[in-house]
Known about the structure:
Two copies of one chain form a homodimer. The first copy, chain A, has helices at residues 11-19, 33-38, 51-57, 63-73, 96-108, 127-135, 154-166, 183-197, 214-224, 245-251, 263-276, 294-297, 301-313, 320-333, 343-357, 365-372, 384-394, 411-419, 428-436, 441-447, and strands spanning 3-4, 6-9, 43-48, 78-83, 113-116, 139-145, 171-176, 202-207, 228-231, 257-258, 484-490, 493-499. The first copy, chain A, is of the alpha/beta class. The first copy, chain A, has two domains: 3-283, TIM Barrel; 294-405, Cyclin A, domain 1 (Orthogonal Bundle). In chain A, helix 5 runs parallel beside helix 6, helix 14 crosses helix 15 (343-357) and helix 18 (411-419) crosses helix 19. The radius of gyration of chain A is 22 Å and the shape is globular. The two termini of chain A are 40 Å apart. Chains A, B: One of its GO terms (biological process) is gluconeogenesis. Chains A, B: This is Methylmalonyl-CoA carboxytransferase subunit 5S.
Amino acid sequence: MPKTIEVTELILRDAHQSLMATRMAMEDMVPACEDIDKAGYWSVECWGGATFDSCIRFLNEDPWDRLRKFRKLLPNSRLQMLLRGQNLLGYRHYEDEVVDRFVDKAAENGMDVFRVFDALNDIRNVRQAIKAVKKAGKHAQGTICYTVSPLHTVTGYVEMAEQLVDLGCDSICIKDMAALLKPQPAYDIVKAIKEACGEELRIHVHVHATTGVTMVSLMKAIEAGADCVDTAISSLSLGPGHNPTESLVEMLEGTPYVTKLDKSRLLKVKEYFAGIRPRYKEYLSNITGVETEIFDSQIPGGMISNMESQLKQQGAADRLKEVLCEVPRVRKDAGYPPLVTPSSQIVGTQAVFNVMMGRYKVLTGEFADLMLGYYGTTLGQRDPEVINLAHKQARKNPITCRPADLLKPEWDQLRSSGLALKGCNGSDEDVLTYAMFPQVAPKFFSTRQEGPKNLGKDPSAKPAAAPAPGGNAETGKGPVMSTISYDVKLNGKTHKVTVAPSA
Amino acid sequence: MPKTIEVTELILRDAHQSLMATRMAMEDMVPACEDIDKAGYWSVECWGGATFDSCIRFLNEDPWDRLRKFRKLLPNSRLQMLLRGQNLLGYRHYEDEVVDRFVDKAAENGMDVFRVFDALNDIRNVRQAIKAVKKAGKHAQGTICYTVSPLHTVTGYVEMAEQLVDLGCDSICIKDMAALLKPQPAYDIVKAIKEACGEELRIHVHVHATTGVTMVSLMKAIEAGADCVDTAISSLSLGPGHNPTESLVEMLEGTPYVTKLDKSRLLKVKEYFAGIRPRYKEYLSNITGVETEIFDSQIPGGMISNMESQLKQQGAADRLKEVLCEVPRVRKDAGYPPLVTPSSQIVGTQAVFNVMMGRYKVLTGEFADLMLGYYGTTLGQRDPEVINLAHKQARKNPITCRPADLLKPEWDQLRSSGLALKGCNGSDEDVLTYAMFPQVAPKFFSTRQEGPKNLGKDPSAKPAAAPAPGGNAETGKGPVMSTISYDVKLNGKTHKVTVAPSA
């Protein structure tokens, strides 16, 4: 009997986040739900990541309402979300009670599987969220962010898996957000975790397709014992997205592995999204082929385009190569964090600053926080001299405790501030929306009654047709994390530097 | 010590044939040659296939001159070509002396490795070409066209490999022109051929990327003992093209296999062709993602778009689904030929005729020839009733001999006709050009002195800029095989049906 390989479908979350800047409207997903629900997936990722932010920032959609709709439309499916540990879906650490309440509400509104990760792989930053998921009786998936450095080893990943199991995780995800996971390490890591934690521990593998090797990595992970892999329906796959679901099904034919996916359903889902894709042309990633330079540079493609635009703003587009050389240095000084939101932006921006103003002459507030331990701990030792500079510039002491331990209870304050906003409906869900995005939520609450804005456009309409509804399409491509502005003095002149997220 | 996996680079032939309709001008390849030559490839495929036709039909380039230039520009590389057995680079069978002379001249002008195939896998159709290659002291690569049918088995492929070895082939190529080769059969076939023919027999694997599984197939073929694989530099890879060279290099890291390719050279080649690609935008394939339906339909993507346009011409675009259902039936009746030029066009067009006019009410001349054995033999038995119809309609008897055995010596006649053409330079090379393309060569000879026409366009130029030089760009996308027109009577009305090649 061949072993069944389970599949998580990414089309409703990470696929459109990676390929069309998270802009897909709920309205454009609804018609595909019945086929997705009946195709035989282990789970359907449909919430979390950047979708919450995108809903309220661009789509005038209530993310909680989206979740409840998915629950109704996918009655046979496990709903899955991506949760940034102690950051939840926002971009700072929240106090534990907020984490508990968020997880509770997500579970109550229909979420089944919580994939919980921390950008630094600091286990202390996922502990509370995992505890909350278990308490809610849901599936807690502990996540290892895969990266490559002189310090990252198979043994290290196994230790992290063991710690996640100790926290009560129901499964482990190896998350390769930058398509760095090659076939041999994929095999070695899955094999070693299975050996250390037992064959019965579920291992899920999440890879992106950017480098053109990760379909092979999925095969090798499966041969090593992986139980479930993440793919996206082919019409919204590849490039910075994921490997195609249909190809995975076909790849296994004749092997000792098989999926239980219904190919005729997959074909319908594919054809449906092939029709939707052109509506979001203006948000589509330019990258359609593969990029393998990242194996040497360690710099994700999205991060490079960000640094390029930062340099352009300062009339220094010609210094990109210097910045690209500086990134590995900064990453080393910061203790080799994986490069994923938010660490990729923090490291990339500091590299730009180093090249423009001299190495560590000016530190961004975020980079200082990273060096001082306010994001958590890193695998490598952080450079003591740079820590010292951060200490002086930021006037903060380095910490070694779990960052959230320094936070005071904040729920009551968040609740009263949230409820005071015009248009807030008084629910805890609204308070959580406000807690996550205090700058964006007020406007969203005030316009919510106008209903969702679909940014998709009829591709047959003329390019110069009516502007995108909602009026905020000007932010254009790229993920949707808040942009931060700095005023930077250079040779006596002040420069405005904005930092937007990359991955 | 890891085993070295050799690589054949396809960028100068099949990559642009598959992705930009074979339109790349020699001028646009020259600057990359030094890096290609020094990157460490086993061979560089740069000639044959549709390039010969494209040179004289669209580019006003002498294909023999192109070959001599490659010989000079790639002094350290084995030059490789694709040769259609007894068809050479044309679309009919040639008498053996013409085959000998063509191979001799190709060798004399610089060709090293001849990949020889027959669309029907009829070994008798490659025998003479392989003999000629051996006589010229060059590398003869016997080719197995991979396809899937109830009759195609691993054992069958092994038998064909053994026959090719018996003919004196220096290596075997498994050629998967439709991206049908899945990982497990890739492993099984390579393994079985090595076991039957000896470990020392070189096996090369050629796959296209269309279905999204074949990078894994390459990995499995390598694990089974394959010695050399075909890839294309990433900036002109994927879609209906091939897997990216750089990804192959990275894929093997940490495995018991390694390439000896120079990554810094590959990066230069990549960047160079990334700049060239937009110049051929109007010829670029629309397909950038993957298509897995072919696994069920057995119909290559290019063949579908061809049948679509045939149906459209007759105002019957809505009958595509019927035609798609008819193709497997026609293929079965024809003895399960692989679907590759020219069998894909012959089967596809007959399927269109069957749907439009009733099953086998009208046979195309080519389909009748196929049924009667004039293209060679097929693995499956051809349907006796359809053979009978073909016999009646075409007024020809079925044959079982090697088709070329029926041909009379033709070189002297070809030579005198060729030399009589205005602009013919009197060389045997020119006579062979004429022999290959008697309709196109006369015009080419008469315009050759005007020099090559580069159909690439500055992508920053306005779309409505000057028309493509050469004035024959109107043939548009698609491969370059001759188009055949039929006048077909349907319900008393005459319809013009044109048949163009698909793959």
